[in-house]
Each structure stands twice: as C-alpha cells, then as structure tokens.
Fold this protein.
Amino acid sequence: MSFRPPPLFPLPTERTLTRRSFLVGSASFAAAAALSTRARGAVASAPTFSAYPFALGVASGDPTPDGVVLWTRLVPQPLEPGGGMTPEPVDVAWQVAEDEAMTRIVRRGTAVANAAWAHAVHVEVEGLAPDRWYWYRFKAGSETSPKGRTRTMPPAAASPERLRFAFASCQKFETGFYTAYEHLTREDLDLVVHLGDYIYEKGPAAADTPRRHNAPEIFSLDDYRARYALYKSDPALQAAHAMAPWIVTWDDHEVANDYAAAIPERPDRITTEKFLQRRAAGYQAYFEHMPLRRTALPSGPDMLLYRRLAFGRLASFNVLDTRQYRSDQPPGESRQPLNPFILDPKRTIMGVKQRDWLFDSLASSRAGWNVVAQQVMVARVDSEPGEKAGYYMDKWPAYETERQSLLQHIHDRKVKNAVVLTGDIHNNWANELLSDFDRLESRSVATEFVGTSITSGGDGVDQPKGVDVLQAENPFVKWHNRERGYVTCEVTPKTWKTDFKTIPYVTRRGAPLTTRATFVVESGRPLLQRA
Ligand code: FE
Ligand code: CA
C-alpha cells in the first residue's frame, strides 16, 4: 500500500472552459473541443510521472481588465517525442491567489491536458479584479508547478499614470546565453512583449557555438515541440515568463526563414502542400507553447494571431502578424531599390483583412499611445552607401505602397502618438517615421523603436563601421547599435521613454547590463529626443 500525501489543492469544483468563452473564443469549433475538454474515456486525475512534469515552467499572457491566460505543459521528458507522456488526458488543477504565499486563493479550477495538444494547458481565467498583481500555479497528480506572477489590465475607461514594459525578440539558442533575460527579470515591468523568432528552425550550426541545437532542421510537429522544449528549458527564459504576463507574436523562424504566407524561401525545393503542412506544425507548436487565448487556436495551417490589447486609456497595443498573409518577397536580390514590381499597390504585408482592422483600430482609438507591435522594420532605410538606394526586401519597404498608406493613414486620421515596436533585425534602431520618405524633409508622423536580439548574431558591437554614412543618408535614423539585449519603455500620459538595454557579449555568461541610449517622445510630438 502506497502512501499518497493529501492533495495540496482541493478537488476541482469548476471547469475552466465556460460555454461562453468557448463559443466566443473559438475560430475552429472542432479543434477547440479537443483543446482542453474531456475526450471520450478516462481522464487521469491522479497521474504519476517519470520525472518532474512542469519542466518548462509556467507563463501567463494576454491580460484583460478581469482576466489573463495561464499556461503550462506537462512534459516530464521534454526532448523526447511524446514528452514522456502517455496518450491519456490528464487533469491539471490551477489556482490564482492575491498573495505570493498563495494563502488567499481567488480562483481555481481544473483544465484537461490532452496529448493532441502536447499536454499543454491554456486557462482563460475570468472574474479577477482590474489593475492588480496575482500569483498562480498548477498541480498534476502530486506534482506542483513553479509559481508565476501575473497581472490584469486597468479598467478600459481608466487613465493609468504609468505603464512599464519590455520588448524582446530573436533568441537563437545556439549563439549565446539568455543573460539578457536574467537582467530583464530584475526589471520592474507590467508586461513583456515578444516580437518573434522565439525559436529557430535549423539544425546545429557548423561553427563552434556556446550551445547546440539538439536535432537537425525541424519539420514535423514533434520536431517543433522538441525545439520549443529545448528553448524553454532555459531557467532565465522561464523566470522571465514567470514574472509578468507576455504579449507574443511570431516572425519567420517559428516556421522557416523568410517565408511569405504559403511560399517558402525556396519554393523550388518543396511543394505548397508540403510547406503548408510544415506551417501547420510550426503554428500548432507555437500555440501549444505560448500563453494565447482560444481565439488564436490554429486550424490546419491557419492561426489568428493579430489582436488588440489595452492598458486602460493609456496605451493600446495592436499586435500584428506580418508573415501569414503577406505577398512574396520580390524576386532577385535581398536588397533592391524601389521598382515597379515593389510599388505594385496589390502587394501587401498585412493582408487586406488585417490592414482594414488595423486602420479602423488606429482611426477609432481613444488611447493616449497607439502601439503597433510587429516584426520587421517600417522605416525605409537605404543601406546602400552612395547614390544608389538599397532596401532589404524582407521588410516593409518591399511592400512600399502599403507601407506608405499606413503612414498616410496615421497622418490623415490624426492618429494620436503612434509608436511602432519592431524585432527581426538583431540590432537597435531609433527611427522617426516620415509622412513621405521620398522627401526626407517631410514631417515625422510616428516613431519606431527596433529592438536588438536576445542572442541571435552572437556577441555584438556597439557602433558598426559606416554608421555615420548610414545616418547621413537616413537622417530619420536617430540612433543605431549592434549589441544584444532588450528594450524597456516607460509610458505616462505626457511622455514615452525608451531605454535601449544592452549587454556586451552572450557567448560567455555573466555579461553586465548597460542602458546604452534613452529616447523620449512627448505626447503630440512624434519626434525622438535623446535623453
Ligand atoms: Fe531573428
Ligand atoms: Ca526574422
């Protein structure tokens, strides 16, 4: 007879999935039904595990004034296909408390972890108080997860005095240690925004790297799951997730380098059908490992990721997906001057539906600051020194007519304090976005902060050679730097302050953090002032 300790958690009294959230949130009814409801047959409510099942930690995300998404995944053997779990569904109890010691529990329930979704759990907690911190944890069998801290948004009509958040992107596991996340975890932050390249898809690099991808290039769902497990095994990344709610979007490497909608980088090497299977695997694994709502539940190769979140009236976050709906990159060189192909008004980086949604969202917004959190650089930076112009063709300038129409829209509709946040490019930029990039003297209508990578690219440099020429040819670029790190933003009704936080190396542990540059934007004046 084996002794079983009394359960830490009382038996579940409510299901996590209310009928309302189920119907409202579901883009794909059938898929949603399999996500965290009971499948036919037994659910293991007292499972045992071959090792600690919460090996990837916990996370929370997409807060509202009365709720937040809580995430975890049961995976005792993270790097193995199947994660060391048997196919049966498993009950996972969850608790939300008002205090760190978790003595004042305010919400609790049970979710079901299903093998079809990698035994991941996405709990959409409702009924919390606005604008306050909470702590949460999960329990499965006799195992208890680490504790996470999260918060709700202020009431929709409230006018908060301050928001502090960080944004990050591009965390190739091989090229360095997540020292930047160790520093980020010590910041005082309400939110963390991740702008993509959370994983990279290739096999191990040929070069000597401080860490290794543990498998060849990933294609199948099991491959992608194991890659997330490798990345999320990092304690600094887990700590960063456990400290505050995250708002996430993807870039290309969550599927494959430089893909555009259904078109891979090398369409000569793979059929559209096969590529869409790969995209479906990448999207599903992304959903399984991120604290996303059921509205984002993937259905085959489709997943609705663009969305809006509000920090009261202070700031609205429009989170974009510039990968799933975009026209293909122009044929030819990766860097090109403008030409009739690029200027074709049918070319799109957002897709018509997302563009209409964004334009409506910006035009009707009553927010003090209108954030566009997205992947690739909007400023049209000419990176070809001299007379000739050259723009990188994976970024907004390859969709020049739509890019210009966004800035025109911000100008014409007098969108208040538009601020674009960007990842992808593995270096820091502070840009003013001009109403007309053909006339460099035209006025700035918005600002863009481009954040460097967490690790991608390896150890960086502060100022690259030729930065003076770059800035002379692109006077709207107010600052550029190529170290690793992240960006923090402190937002008040009157000012927006951005700190570019950098570390000098990532190939060794222990790099110190520096605030390399600070810029302030005053409300009503979309200009960058170096502080
Ligand atoms: Fe990247
Ligand atoms: Ca990228």
About this structure: The domain at 164-530 is CATH 3.60.21.70 (Purple Acid Phosphatase; chain A, domain 2). The pocket of fe (iii) ion (ligand 1) is lined by residues 170, 197, 253, 424, 426, 456 (CB under 6 Å). The chain has two domains: 14-151, 164-530. Confidence is low (pLDDT under 50) at residues 1-30.
